[in-house]
Design a protein that fits this description.
- By secondary structure, this protein is of the alpha/beta class.
- The chain has a single domain, classed as Spore Coat Polysaccharide Biosynthesis Protein SpsA, Chain A, CATH 3.90.550.10.
- It has helices at about 15-30, 50-60, 70-80, 100-110, 130-150, 165-170, 180-190, 220-240, and strands at about 1-10, 35-40, 60-65, 85-90, 115-120, 125-130, 160-165, 195-200, 205.
- Helix 1 links the parallel strand 1 and strand 2 (about 35-40).
- Helix 1 packs parallel to helix 2 and helix 5 runs parallel beside helix 8.
- The protein is globular.
Length: about 240
């Protein structure tokens, strides 16, 4: 079983080496599958390229991939395309989601037969350390998604997801978003088209909140997500109206 673990990276020089070393150590100790890590460098302007190339030379299980176009969705797609696999996974480069959830995320697909597995901060067994403002944003996004597209899922935005090859081949090409909404769109499309989607509990800590609040401007992002959810609803509605 081949597993592609992609790290989308934009200006991650401060954390990238620590993250990759931690991920390599964890995978060596806990994963029995044929795993490989892809650093998908999303046109970084700091020293991320140099660090990524160094790590790829240092570890056989690490590949550095330069992505010429901007956008988290573009980076994830490029990372997945760089290395064919049976299971495609991605996680945020800051490791806000504790790696202890990774075996369960992969087992949901390889052992239990689900098509998509997503880390869920709303799972009753999850432990989450984040500000009240971020909790409020997540709650509002969950309500909006349920109202717009009727999803049953509790956490679409967590950057910790895995899909099988069938979803990669059939659903990824239909996901048009290039930015942060990409993985939400991917998950919602898979759910809408009848693929099995399961949420797994995570330990999650908002690592960037104190020192990097500008990384994702929450208000602007919420407006963009609202527009993208409404656009996805229109697309799904047209699909249902087709004979």
């Amino acid at each position: 079983m081949k597993v592609n673990i992609t790290l989308p990276a934009y200006n991650e020089a401060a954390v990238l080496e620590r993250t990759v070393r931690q991920l390599v150590d964890f995978c060596q100790a806990n994963l029995h599958d044929d795993w490989h890590i892809v650093i998908a460098d999303n046109r970084s302007t700091d020293t991320t390229p140099e660090i990524g190339k160094h790590l790829a030379q240092l570890f056989d299980a690490v590949t550095y991939c330069f992505v010429g176009s901007k956008g988290k969705g573009v980076a994830i797609k490029a990372g997945w395309q760089a290395l064919p696999a049976d299971v495609y996974c991605f996680m945020d480069a800051d490791l806000a989601t504790d790696l202890e959830a990774l075996p369960a995320l992969l087992s949901a697909l390889t052992v239990h037969g689900h098509d998509v597995a997503i880390g869920s901060r709303s799972h009753p067994e999850s432990v989450v350390d984040r500000t009240w403002f971020r909790r409020f944003f997540s709650f509002g996004y969950r309500l909006l998604a349920r109202g717009a597209v009727g999803t049953r899922l509790g956490d679409l935005a967590c950057g910790f997801k895995a899909i099988n090859r069938r979803v990669y081949e059939q659903i990824v090409p239909q996901a048009h978003t290039t930015e942060w909404f990409f993985d939400s769109e991917l998950t919602l499309l898979a759910e809408h088209l009848g693929f099995s989607v399961v949420e797994v509990p995570v330990h999650w800590r908002d690592i960037r909140e104190a020192g990097d609040q500008s990384r994702v401007k929450t208000i602007q992002l919420s407006i963009a997500y609202t527009r993208q959810l409404l656009d996805l609803r229109r697309r799904l509605s047209r699909r249902l109206q087709q004979p």
